[in-house]
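User: My advisor asked me to double-check a structure prediction for AraC family transcriptional regulator before group meeting. I don't want to rely on an old file, so could you generate it fresh from this sequence?
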Amino acid sequence: MEGRYELVIPNDDLPFRLFIFEGREGKYKVTKHWHHSVEIFLVQEGKIDFYINNSHLSLARQDFVLVNSNEVHSIECPEPNVTIVLQIPGDTFKEYLGEDGYLNFEKKDDIQNQRLTELVTSMFSIYEKQEYGGSLKVKSQFYELLHLLVTEFKTETMDKELIRQKRQLDKLSDVTQYMRDNYDQDLKLEEVAERFGFSSTYLSRIFQKYAQVNYRTYLIDLRVKYAVRELVGSDHEIGEIAMNHGFPDSRSFSKAFKKRYGCLPSTYRKHTVINR
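Assistant: Sure, here is a fresh prediction for AraC family transcriptional regulator from the sequence you gave:
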Protein backbone atom coordinates (compact mmCIF):
# COMPACT_ATOMS: atom_id res chain seq x y z
CA MET A 1 0.00 0.00 0.00
CA GLU A 2 1.22 3.48 -0.83
CA GLY A 3 2.03 6.33 1.52
CA ARG A 4 1.87 9.67 -0.15
CA TYR A 5 1.41 13.32 0.70
CA GLU A 6 -1.64 14.83 -0.91
CA LEU A 7 -1.87 18.54 -1.69
CA VAL A 8 -5.37 19.92 -1.28
CA ILE A 9 -6.29 22.62 -3.79
CA PRO A 10 -9.57 24.47 -3.07
CA ASN A 11 -12.27 24.83 -5.72
CA ASP A 12 -11.70 28.02 -7.71
CA ASP A 13 -14.62 29.80 -6.08
CA LEU A 14 -14.42 28.23 -2.61
CA PRO A 15 -11.85 28.13 0.23
CA PHE A 16 -12.11 24.31 0.27
CA ARG A 17 -12.70 21.34 -2.05
CA LEU A 18 -16.14 19.77 -2.43
CA PHE A 19 -16.69 16.95 -4.90
CA ILE A 20 -17.95 13.42 -5.54
CA PHE A 21 -15.37 10.73 -4.77
CA GLU A 22 -13.67 9.52 -7.94
CA GLY A 23 -14.19 5.85 -7.05
CA ARG A 24 -17.91 6.00 -7.74
CA GLU A 25 -17.80 3.22 -10.37
CA GLY A 26 -16.40 0.71 -7.85
CA LYS A 27 -13.39 -1.60 -8.16
CA TYR A 28 -11.28 1.31 -6.95
CA LYS A 29 -8.60 1.74 -4.32
CA VAL A 30 -6.84 4.69 -2.77
CA THR A 31 -3.66 3.44 -1.17
CA LYS A 32 -2.20 4.66 2.11
CA HIS A 33 -1.62 8.39 2.20
CA TRP A 34 -1.88 11.42 4.44
CA HIS A 35 -2.16 15.18 4.05
CA HIS A 36 -2.36 18.43 5.97
CA SER A 37 -6.06 18.87 5.29
CA VAL A 38 -9.06 17.66 7.27
CA GLU A 39 -11.43 15.50 5.23
CA ILE A 40 -15.02 14.42 5.57
CA PHE A 41 -16.27 11.46 3.50
CA LEU A 42 -20.08 11.17 3.52
CA VAL A 43 -21.64 8.19 1.74
CA GLN A 44 -24.88 8.92 -0.10
CA GLU A 45 -25.32 5.59 -1.90
CA GLY A 46 -23.58 2.22 -1.69
CA LYS A 47 -20.72 1.71 0.73
CA ILE A 48 -16.95 2.12 1.02
CA ASP A 49 -14.31 0.62 3.30
CA PHE A 50 -12.09 3.06 5.13
CA TYR A 51 -8.85 2.27 6.94
CA ILE A 52 -7.39 4.81 9.39
CA ASN A 53 -4.37 4.08 11.58
CA ASN A 54 -5.00 0.33 11.25
CA SER A 55 -8.71 0.64 12.12
CA HIS A 56 -11.32 -0.52 9.60
CA LEU A 57 -14.59 1.38 9.09
CA SER A 58 -17.31 0.16 6.76
CA LEU A 59 -19.34 3.19 5.69
CA ALA A 60 -22.87 2.73 4.37
CA ARG A 61 -25.54 5.25 3.36
CA GLN A 62 -25.44 8.44 5.48
CA ASP A 63 -22.33 7.28 7.34
CA PHE A 64 -19.34 9.59 7.42
CA VAL A 65 -15.75 9.59 8.57
CA LEU A 66 -13.59 12.46 9.78
CA VAL A 67 -9.97 12.24 8.63
CA ASN A 68 -7.63 14.45 10.60
CA SER A 69 -4.45 16.15 9.47
CA ASN A 70 -1.59 13.65 9.07
CA GLU A 71 -3.68 10.55 9.69
CA VAL A 72 -2.57 7.66 7.48
CA HIS A 73 -5.60 6.28 5.67
CA SER A 74 -6.63 4.22 2.66
CA ILE A 75 -9.93 3.46 0.91
CA GLU A 76 -11.41 0.49 -0.91
CA CYS A 77 -14.69 0.55 -2.79
CA PRO A 78 -15.34 -2.70 -4.66
CA GLU A 79 -18.91 -1.66 -5.50
CA PRO A 80 -20.39 1.52 -7.06
CA ASN A 81 -21.07 4.32 -4.60
CA VAL A 82 -21.83 8.01 -4.37
CA THR A 83 -19.71 9.68 -1.70
CA ILE A 84 -19.38 13.39 -1.01
CA VAL A 85 -15.85 14.50 -0.12
CA LEU A 86 -15.14 17.76 1.69
CA GLN A 87 -11.45 18.68 2.01
CA ILE A 88 -10.64 21.55 4.35
CA PRO A 89 -7.10 22.99 4.13
CA GLY A 90 -5.31 22.56 7.45
CA ASP A 91 -4.45 26.26 7.69
CA THR A 92 -8.17 26.94 8.12
CA PHE A 93 -7.78 25.89 11.76
CA LYS A 94 -4.47 27.61 12.54
CA GLU A 95 -6.07 29.88 15.15
CA TYR A 96 -7.42 26.88 17.05
CA LEU A 97 -4.35 24.63 17.24
CA GLY A 98 -3.29 23.34 20.64
CA GLU A 99 0.07 23.91 22.29
CA ASP A 100 1.45 20.93 20.38
CA GLY A 101 0.51 22.56 17.07
CA TYR A 102 -2.19 20.06 16.14
CA LEU A 103 -5.97 19.76 16.26
CA ASN A 104 -8.02 16.57 16.01
CA PHE A 105 -11.72 15.92 15.51
CA GLU A 106 -13.81 12.84 16.29
CA LYS A 107 -17.42 11.74 15.76
CA LYS A 108 -19.80 12.56 18.61
CA ASP A 109 -23.39 11.67 19.47
CA ASP A 110 -26.25 11.17 17.01
CA ILE A 111 -27.57 14.74 17.18
CA GLN A 112 -24.21 16.34 16.45
CA ASN A 113 -23.38 13.78 13.77
CA GLN A 114 -26.72 14.36 12.07
CA ARG A 115 -26.15 18.12 12.04
CA LEU A 116 -22.79 17.64 10.36
CA THR A 117 -24.33 15.28 7.81
CA GLU A 118 -27.10 17.75 7.01
CA LEU A 119 -24.65 20.60 6.49
CA VAL A 120 -22.35 18.68 4.15
CA THR A 121 -25.30 17.32 2.15
CA SER A 122 -26.85 20.78 1.83
CA MET A 123 -23.54 22.37 0.84
CA PHE A 124 -23.05 19.91 -1.98
CA SER A 125 -26.67 20.13 -3.17
CA ILE A 126 -26.52 23.93 -3.39
CA TYR A 127 -23.06 23.99 -4.97
CA GLU A 128 -24.05 21.39 -7.57
CA LYS A 129 -26.92 23.56 -8.82
CA GLN A 130 -24.55 26.47 -9.58
CA GLU A 131 -27.36 28.99 -9.15
CA TYR A 132 -26.80 32.73 -8.85
CA GLY A 133 -25.62 33.53 -5.32
CA GLY A 134 -25.38 29.86 -4.44
CA SER A 135 -21.69 29.98 -3.54
CA LEU A 136 -22.47 32.56 -0.85
CA LYS A 137 -24.92 30.16 0.78
CA VAL A 138 -22.39 27.33 0.54
CA LYS A 139 -19.72 29.50 2.18
CA SER A 140 -22.09 30.48 4.99
CA GLN A 141 -22.83 26.82 5.68
CA PHE A 142 -19.12 26.03 5.49
CA TYR A 143 -18.36 28.48 8.29
CA GLU A 144 -21.26 27.07 10.26
CA LEU A 145 -19.65 23.65 9.79
CA LEU A 146 -16.26 24.95 10.95
CA HIS A 147 -17.89 26.34 14.08
CA LEU A 148 -19.57 22.97 14.68
CA LEU A 149 -16.26 21.15 14.30
CA VAL A 150 -14.21 23.31 16.68
CA THR A 151 -16.95 23.55 19.32
CA GLU A 152 -18.53 20.08 19.21
CA PHE A 153 -16.15 17.65 17.48
CA LYS A 154 -12.77 18.67 18.86
CA THR A 155 -10.77 15.94 20.60
CA GLU A 156 -10.02 17.11 24.12
CA THR A 157 -6.73 15.26 24.56
CA MET A 158 -4.31 13.81 22.02
CA ASP A 159 -2.14 10.77 22.64
CA LYS A 160 1.60 11.56 22.74
CA GLU A 161 2.35 8.81 20.23
CA LEU A 162 -0.22 10.28 17.82
CA ILE A 163 1.46 13.68 18.09
CA ARG A 164 4.83 12.05 17.47
CA GLN A 165 3.42 10.34 14.36
CA LYS A 166 2.06 13.61 13.01
CA ARG A 167 5.43 15.28 13.46
CA GLN A 168 7.26 12.49 11.66
CA LEU A 169 4.74 12.57 8.81
CA ASP A 170 5.38 16.30 8.54
CA LYS A 171 9.03 15.43 7.92
CA LEU A 172 8.10 12.82 5.33
CA SER A 173 5.81 15.17 3.43
CA ASP A 174 8.61 16.92 1.54
CA VAL A 175 10.15 13.56 0.67
CA THR A 176 6.93 12.05 -0.68
CA GLN A 177 6.12 15.21 -2.65
CA TYR A 178 9.54 14.94 -4.31
CA MET A 179 8.84 11.28 -5.07
CA ARG A 180 5.47 12.12 -6.59
CA ASP A 181 7.13 14.69 -8.82
CA ASN A 182 9.85 12.24 -9.92
CA TYR A 183 8.29 8.79 -9.50
CA ASP A 184 9.09 7.81 -13.12
CA GLN A 185 12.82 8.28 -12.50
CA ASP A 186 15.30 5.89 -10.86
CA LEU A 187 14.74 6.96 -7.25
CA LYS A 188 17.22 5.05 -5.10
CA LEU A 189 16.57 5.18 -1.36
CA GLU A 190 20.13 6.31 -0.63
CA GLU A 191 19.95 9.21 -3.08
CA VAL A 192 16.57 10.45 -1.90
CA ALA A 193 17.65 10.22 1.75
CA GLU A 194 20.82 12.19 1.05
CA ARG A 195 18.85 14.86 -0.80
CA PHE A 196 16.84 15.58 2.36
CA GLY A 197 19.69 15.22 4.82
CA PHE A 198 18.70 11.80 6.16
CA SER A 199 20.59 8.55 6.33
CA SER A 200 19.04 5.77 4.26
CA THR A 201 18.50 3.77 7.46
CA TYR A 202 16.61 6.62 9.12
CA LEU A 203 14.43 7.34 6.09
CA SER A 204 13.62 3.65 5.70
CA ARG A 205 12.73 3.37 9.38
CA ILE A 206 10.38 6.37 9.54
CA PHE A 207 8.66 5.26 6.33
CA GLN A 208 7.94 1.87 7.86
CA LYS A 209 6.99 3.08 11.33
CA TYR A 210 5.00 6.22 10.61
CA ALA A 211 3.79 5.89 7.03
CA GLN A 212 3.21 2.16 7.65
CA VAL A 213 4.81 1.19 4.37
CA ASN A 214 8.37 0.55 3.23
CA TYR A 215 10.12 2.83 0.74
CA ARG A 216 10.14 0.41 -2.20
CA THR A 217 6.48 -0.51 -1.82
CA TYR A 218 5.60 3.16 -1.64
CA LEU A 219 7.46 3.90 -4.87
CA ILE A 220 5.94 0.97 -6.78
CA ASP A 221 2.44 1.82 -5.54
CA LEU A 222 2.98 5.40 -6.67
CA ARG A 223 3.97 4.24 -10.15
CA VAL A 224 0.98 1.92 -10.40
CA LYS A 225 -1.37 4.68 -9.27
CA TYR A 226 -0.32 7.04 -12.04
CA ALA A 227 -0.16 4.24 -14.60
CA VAL A 228 -3.79 3.34 -13.89
CA ARG A 229 -4.88 6.81 -14.98
CA GLU A 230 -3.19 6.37 -18.35
CA LEU A 231 -4.45 2.79 -18.61
CA VAL A 232 -8.12 3.79 -18.40
CA GLY A 233 -7.74 7.21 -20.03
CA SER A 234 -5.92 6.22 -23.20
CA ASP A 235 -5.50 3.43 -25.74
CA HIS A 236 -1.73 3.25 -25.30
CA GLU A 237 -0.07 -0.15 -25.29
CA ILE A 238 0.58 -1.74 -21.89
CA GLY A 239 4.34 -1.74 -22.51
CA GLU A 240 4.32 1.95 -23.36
CA ILE A 241 2.35 2.77 -20.21
CA ALA A 242 4.80 0.74 -18.13
CA MET A 243 7.78 2.67 -19.50
CA ASN A 244 6.02 6.01 -19.06
CA HIS A 245 5.66 5.37 -15.33
CA GLY A 246 9.03 4.07 -14.28
CA PHE A 247 8.69 0.33 -14.91
CA PRO A 248 11.46 -1.39 -16.89
CA ASP A 249 8.98 -3.43 -18.93
CA SER A 250 5.36 -4.55 -19.19
CA ARG A 251 6.04 -7.73 -17.24
CA SER A 252 7.16 -5.91 -14.10
CA PHE A 253 4.23 -3.51 -14.43
CA SER A 254 1.73 -6.36 -14.81
CA LYS A 255 3.16 -8.14 -11.78
CA ALA A 256 2.92 -5.02 -9.60
CA PHE A 257 -0.55 -4.21 -10.94
CA LYS A 258 -1.95 -7.70 -10.30
CA LYS A 259 -0.62 -7.66 -6.73
CA ARG A 260 -2.58 -4.48 -6.03
CA TYR A 261 -5.71 -4.90 -8.16
CA GLY A 262 -6.04 -8.67 -8.37
CA CYS A 263 -6.00 -8.79 -12.16
CA LEU A 264 -3.83 -7.93 -15.14
CA PRO A 265 -3.84 -4.37 -16.56
CA SER A 266 -5.51 -5.57 -19.77
CA THR A 267 -8.36 -7.15 -17.81
CA TYR A 268 -8.81 -4.04 -15.68
CA ARG A 269 -8.91 -1.82 -18.77
CA LYS A 270 -11.46 -4.04 -20.48
CA HIS A 271 -13.74 -4.09 -17.44
CA THR A 272 -13.50 -0.31 -16.98
CA VAL A 273 -14.36 0.40 -20.62
CA ILE A 274 -17.36 -1.97 -20.51
CA ASN A 275 -18.76 -0.26 -17.40
CA ARG A 276 -18.42 3.30 -18.65
